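Data availability excerpt. The first of two example chains:
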Amino acid sequence: DGNDEDFPGYVNTAPDFLLEWHGVDGASSGLGWGDDEAVDEDGDGTWFDRQLGIPGATASFISAACGGGSQPVYGDLSSVYPDGCVTVDLAASGFLMDPSGSLATWGNYLTANGAFYQMCMGYVEQGAFDASTCAAYGVDDSADEFDAACLSDYSPGNFAALADCSGKLTMNFDIPCVPVIEAREVVAEFIEVGGDACGTGDMNSDGGLNVLDVVALVNIVLSGADADCTGDMNGDGGLNVLDVVALVNTVLSGGGRVNEATSAEFNVIGNEVTMTADGYVGAVEMTLLHGNDFALTLTNEALVADFITTGNTTKLMIVEPTGTSMFTAEGNFTIENVVAASNSDDYMHVSVNLPASYVISAAYPNPFNPTTQFSLELNNDAYVSVKVFNTMGQMVDVITNGQMASGTYNLTWDGTDAASGVYLIQTEVGSEISNQKIMLIK
């Protein structure tokens, strides 16, 4: 009658969770014909498909740009055609091809001319025809597709009528399906009547905890999207990297680790960011600021690594990193914020080691006459002053002075108008100053 005696008031209630165990077919078993759950393949009006069988044979679907026709070609021809021409799938109808060349006379396809030639030669062997009769079928007819209407004039003994037939032959694959009996062995309906889903970590509501839940929680934390409390593993009322670490510990080990890191250093080396830590790191979250030409490649040595870019800001998270490299990047960037954790209780101490704001090479040649050269590499846009002084502290020349964009510059000092002696090249980038000694010999 639709009433539930144990839970009064639940009349014809849709279950929160339905468990069906089928010996033959079903959403989980994957044993139905096809088994596309969205298609009623056996036409009985239900999503159960009570037939087992092979839905088709391997075939290559060739694009029109590469000469494909209305039908695919049986077999995997991805190594025969250029990249991008072929998609390999299953097909119930298609052409036959022999790329090795035994059917070269007919464009490597099985065509009407090719098939009739073999029939004709069989009659020649029986003495019914002269071999010259078969020559009419030694023509490449692979440019067209066979039209069965041409067989209307054919009758036994009227072999000449086949001369009107040509084109690639379409071969049909009969699906060898066998009817079977549906076996619904177990059916159970579950209705939630109480309890709190907060902190369970089951982000995709599939009843279990696995890496899919970790990925879902990472995406929510990075995007800042509104979400319920399912992922609030530490019960602090928010979703953050601490919850991600707690969920990872639950999925992988059921608890914390004795070698948890207490600190981590992040080193910016050229276009790469690396990490060193004194123990296990559960997850790292970082916010980067960058220009429009920025591109990011995250490490693949981690349980989960993902990022979300909004405008000129990128937020990334790396879960359970096992290597030192965090990511490489194209384009300039700055690290606005970084947090890391090894447990769900608190963040660890982190530090970021940035490269020097500039690098200046030694002047060469040195000694010189009358010019010497050196390079200046700026890691950031900066105000730059490069001047030449004599040993008395008097400025004798200005090589460059002004705002400069990040990049590498080749600089030259020409001492043609200066006297022989020792000079100092003073480079000032922002608040940083460096000097190098040079000697002019004339």
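And the second chain:
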Amino acid sequence: PINTRSEITKELSFRIHEQFRRDYPEIEAMTFTVGQASEDNLYGQLLRDNGSHIMTANIRLSLKTERERSIQELSDAMREDLRRYYPEIRTFDVGAGIMGDIAGGQTTVDLEIYGNDFAATDDIAFQLADLMEKVPGTSQVTVSRDEYSPEYLVDFDREKLAEHGLNLSTASQFVRKDDIRNILIYNNQGQAVRVRDIATIGETMQPPTIERKDRERIVTVTCVAAKGAVLSDLVEAAGQQIDKIDIPSDVMIGIAGSYEDQQESFADLTMLMMLILILVYIVMAAQFESFISPFIIMFSVPFALTGVLAGLAVSGTALGIMSMVGLMMLFGIVVKNGIVLIDYIVLCRERGMSVMDAVVTSGRSRLRPILMTAFTTIFGMVPLAVGRGVGAEMWNGLGITVASGLTVSTFVTLFLVPAIYSLIAERREKRKQRKAEHRAKQELVHE
């Protein structure tokens, strides 16, 4: 609690240090900071909370390859220990990653509560926090607005100030001592006036900081997802909990955090994917001097997406930002096999072959180069897909996306693309034949 003496906070930090060192062999180093940062410590003054009741621990773990538990599993276990064995801790925040949240080491769902009334927003925030604590898959729930700090409120009576020849500015300069009631304030005539004679003194509770977003007061309930929890499920659960609360008309609640970042990123990447597909189609249409051939080639793109989703599902990897980047790369890679195949079919047709002979000849001639180029790319992505070293989780999604998507699209290219080309070409031939027969009949009629 606020105003706890630093000696008590320090003693508690020793207990936590001893227990964590004993129960977590994965910890290589752990340092605690208690109390107010010194004036020459700019980082401590500006980038973290200070106070005799606050302790901060920086924990460095062993390398990922040297421990069995992940950083998310260890964070969840530490949160459970703090919740179970240290009831005197009012609130805590275990951040996973470099400097906690700064490097994005954990997935969160933030419930942002907008409103000017402190009492109303506080009540809603703590109601939501209690409800979200019970949601499966939630590892930690914190409220951004810190505990209110006790303050003395000196409410000066302006009429009495005027009677004694004082103003508010002069009086406030004197009210800086412990015995506030007996403080003497001197007016312009040198007469002494006690604060208790001209002001009402009472104790009040004030929030330490007022957070704002988009020029509105805000308090945030942050819910950290446990290992294995699905972000969309937490967002859905958060919406259900919001519906259970009676929200005043002057209070608004929004869902942000990792969910908001994910939605914005996915929207931008989706637009990029559409632009990539359009540009690829335009380039192929210009090269083939046809609108039909590029359309046939791009039939392999949806199947590449099917392969990506299947690969991610089998490997248990989430569709993240790196997977989306891999998908954009894939859109440019999967069409090259179709280009090689269709280009040779068109060449054979120009040499006078029938549709079926051109397709068969092209398939037999281009099978080897298609497999060679596809397998070199697929096997080149295998180390990224199966890597387990430090930082490998960042690249696993990219490797799995390209490898699985290209595998499926390659086989689709070898079987589906020639079949679709044959159907379209045969229909085109039949259409030309019918037109020729129709013209011949019209010429006979004219003769």
